[in-house]
Amino acid sequence: MNGWDASTTCVIFNPHAASGSVGREWAERERTLREILGPVTFRASRSSGDGAEQAREAIAAGARTLLSLGGDGTHNEVVHGILTSGAPQGSIRLGILPSGTGGDFRRLLLNSDDWLSAAKALPTATTTTIDAGLAIFSDGGIEQRRHFLNICSFGVGGLACSIVNSSKKRLGSKATFFLGTLEAIFRYTPSTIRLSVDGIEVGTYTVTNIAVANGRFFGAGMMVAPNASLTDGLLDVTVVEAGGPLTVLRLIATIYRGKHTELDCVKTFRGAAITAELVGSNPAYIDLDGEAPGRIPIRIEVVPGALQLLLLRPQGEPA
């Protein structure tokens, strides 16, 4: 990135990320980041949702590059803060210092094996204009508008997200998400959902899950939307219809390679605006970049050209 300016760069970190290891190691991490990045500023996200407020405050104080240090939930909050800060769209640059449990968005980035590799690459990195998503839903009768960076899903994904977030995550990210997903599948009662894409009703489905994707991965490496692009101005929709144990096993065997879209129980769509309404009484829980904020009904819209992202991996290069 030309013109790296540490004086207008702020690192927003989640001390609770990676089962609290970020907080425990923070003194050493801060020293290392200052050595690599220069005299940047730091802001801690102390509670759920605080990352967005810290991002807004950093921008108001003059920051023009925000680096998100944590997991996908932290990145989600920072993006929401950027896009609700009042700053002109595309004027704030975003960098990712991956330090969480799932780490799905980092799979789309270069030098993203860990936060240290990413930090070393950031001062010379270039930016790419990417899209974001906006989810609009109700929480206790109050409309919520939440931006997301990667994927919004509803169905078993939201339940799995709740299970994973309440676990100790001692087995590592992939095993934790895999076991959490299995538990959710066996606990989940399939929901029936009416789905529309760009104002056209495309069907009513009894589903295991529906994912509306800006990125490609969720659940610690499941390639739920293998053809999704951050730069095409569209969202990819993957519908997984409910099935028996054999269907579940086939899904698990194929989804990490993105081959599940070849199964009869999977339908795919693409569009700029998606709505999902519940038919019947079985709820569908929302998973928004690894957080579980509520249930459908929901409307999801693409926000084209929303962000300037550092270190995006070229399309088609292996993650």
Instruction: Name the CATH class of the largest domain.
Output: Mainly Beta
What is the helical fraction, as a range of percent? 25-40%
Tell me the number of helical segments per DSSP (H or I, 4 or more residues long).
8
- CATH-level-2 architecture of the largest domain: Sandwich
Let me know the number of strands: 14
How would you describe the shape?
Answer: globular
Query: Terminal Cα separation, in Å?
Result: 22 Å
The succession of helices and strands, N to C, reads EHHEHEHEHEEEHHEEEHEEEE
Kindly report the average pLDDT value: 90
Unreliable spans are: none
Number of domains: 2
Rg from C-alpha positions?
A: 19 Å
Quaternary organization: single chain
Strand content is 25-35%
Q: In words, what does this structure look like?
A:
This protein is an alpha+beta fold. It folds into 2 domains: 120 residues, Rossmann fold (3-Layer(aba) Sandwich), CATH 3.40.50; 170 residues, Sandwich (Tumour Suppressor Smad4). Helix content is 26%, strand content 33%. Strand 3, helix 4 and strand 4 form a beta-alpha-beta unit.
